[in-house]
Every structure is written in C-alpha cells, then in structure tokens.
Amino acid sequence: MAKTKIEKENERLEREYARKHKKKYRYTAGDVVFEIINHAFFAAFSFICIFPFYYLFINTISDNELVRKGMINFLPRGINIDNYIRMMQVNDLFLSIMVTLARTVIGTLLMVAASAFVGYLVTQKEMWGRSFWYRFLVITMYFNAGIIPWYLNMAMLGLTNKFAAYIIPGIVAPYNIILVKTYIESSIPGELEESAQLDGASPLKIFISIIWPLSKPILATIAIFGAVGQWNSFQDSLILMQSAPKLYTLQHRLYIYLNTTSNLAALMSSGSSSSINQTILESALNGKVIKYTISMVTIIPILLVYPFMQRYFEKGIMMGAVKG
Fold it and tell me: 62-66, 182-186, 271-275: which has the highest mean pLDDT?
C-alpha cells in the first residue's frame, strides 16, 4: 500500500529531528588508552596463535641446511618445494590420503546424523526410559577400560584389519549428543513440535522437517569436532591395522616414514651408511624438516575447512552450552 502524504511528511520530520538531535560521541583520553591497549593485546594474541603455523611453513620451503642449523626464524631463505615433492613420493601416500578422507567424511556424517537423532529423542518426554538412557549415555563419558580391553573387544567384534573399525566406534558420541539435546531444548520452541503433531506429523517427520534444519549451528559444531578427530586419529590405525597396510591412515603412513628416516639418520651416525642411497641419506639428515613438513601436510586440510564452519561453530557451541 502506498504511503499517504501525511505519513511521508511525518517520516521526513522524524528523520530531520533525529539528525538535529543526534549527539556525536567524543572519545576521552581514557577511551583512547583503552582502545590502544585492547587492539595491541588482540594483535599480540593473534600473532602468538598464527606464528607457529607460519614458522612451520617457512621452514618447510626454505633451504634444508639452513633449517638444520636453526637459521630460519622469520623469513624463508633459499625457497623451494623439494620437501613437499619428496613427501608426495612416500609409498602408498595417495592411498593413505584416500583412506583418511573416506573415514573423515563417512565417520563424520554418520556421527552427526546419530548425534542429532539421539539428541532429539532424549528431549521427548514420551520416550520410554528417557532418563535412564540419557544417564546411561552420560556415564560412558567417565569410564575407559583401557587400550588392551578395547583391542580385545574390537578383535572379538571382528573389526581388526577392516575399514569399519574406523567408523563404527565413533558413531555414538555422548558429548555431542548432550550438545544437540541442550541446543534443541534451549533454541527450538516446543510449540513448533506441538503444531506439527496436531497436523499429524510423526516424530521422524518432525525431526527431518523441523529439528534438522533448525539445528544447523550445533550440527556444524559437532561436525568440526568429528572431522578433526577422524582426520587426526592415529592409534586405531596403528593397533588395529597391523595386517592391512592398505588401510593405514595418513598419520600412520607419515609416522612410518618419519621412523624410517630417523633410523637412517642413526645408521649414518654409526658409520653404517655405505650401502644406502645418497638421496635417502640427505633426507635423513634433515629430520627436523621432515617433522615440519609432516605437520604441515596433516594440518593444512583442517585449516582450509575450519574458516567455512567458524560462524556456525561459534553460535552452536554457545547455544549448546546454555543449560544441561
């Protein structure tokens, strides 16, 4: 509907009044000092957080001899990418990357779906034994049988030397379920579910059509937790995949490579290096550089993903921690 002349005139007068009576804030000396200290503190804090990654990176692209002598601190020198090229030549590295990527994607998707659905179920008062099952989930967070019982359990379940060992144990994540439950209770009005129930929607329909779309912040948050955990996981590959080298994760494969170069360096120091390829020997000399390069290779993927999820992460973790 078009505005009348009177309404337009009233709006014009209101804007004019606001413009004339608008007070410009004047900074006092104390405000200026506070702003300077505030910006300086956060600049220093940002530098402290960023510098370790920068330091790793410049050492991986600098001359290896200078790195070995500790002469690379703030600027790269003798820039080259030979370390990354050498890393790409590690046996079965591409296969290990695919295994790690597959477990990260599949494991994270299943964990998020299970956490969302179970978190929604324990918010339903009609659920049979709701309090018991919820407390049962929480209790599992405080008990850990240890590595040996865990390995025996996985062996009895037939999960050793199988890709499923990476996925199945991580599907149910009690902490993530608690976050989802808290988020639903504190952020999604119960009237939405009641309205859908009056329209004849089943709990599954309500979950898919209402709960899932409205829970994106918390789901993105637990997705970050799950993805980082899956990508960095190392112990399960080391212990469970002893007879299945094709299922080694990236971290496991790089760990083997690091141990190999360390052993070669030990052979060199003992004088038993006559029969070893010269290129391999040169690589072994730069154990520090190898460690730096391995760190960068494993960190880069997470650093690339996190910025896209950060806005959901901040909102989700805050809303999911409002109440228990």
Answer: 182-186
pLDDT at 252 over 70: yes
| DSSP-derived secondary structure letter, 74 | S
Contacting residues for 172 by C-beta, under 8 A, at least 6 apart: 111, 114, 115, 118, 137
Q: Give yes or no for residue 306 having a pLDDT over 80.
A: no
> What's the distance, Cα to Cα, between the start and end of the chain in Å?
48
pTM for this entry:
0.71
Query: What tens digit of pLDDT does each residue of 79-102 get?
Result: 877 777 777 777 777 888 889 899
d(CA 235, CA 182): 31
Encoded tokens for 164: 């499923």
Helices (H), 188-249: 190-198, 203-206, 212-214, 216-232, 235-240
Distance between CA 90 and CA 118 in Å, rounded? 42
Q: What is the pLDDT of residues 193-219, one digit of tens each?
A: 778 878 787 888 888 888 888 888 888
C-alpha angle 111-113-115 in degrees, rounded to nearest 5: 65
Residue 136 CB burial class (10 angstroms; 0-12, 13-18, ≥19): exposed
Whether the pLDDT of residue 297 is over 70: the answer is: yes
Angle (CA) 55 58 62, round 5°: 140
State how far the Cα of 104 lies from the Cα of 98, in Å rounded to an integer: 10
The pLDDT score that the predictor gives to residue 1 is 45
102-106, 156-160, 307-311: least confident range: 307-311
Per-residue buried b or exposed e for 45-59, using 16+ beta carbons within 10 Å of the residue's own CB? eeeeeeeeeeebbbb
Q: What is the DSSP string of 273-294?
A: -TTS-HHHHHHHHTHHHHHHHH
Angstrom CA distances, 49 to 44, 53, 55, 61, 168, stand at 9, 8, 11, 20, 34
d(CA 223, CA 111): 8
Residue reference for tokens 């505030």: 38
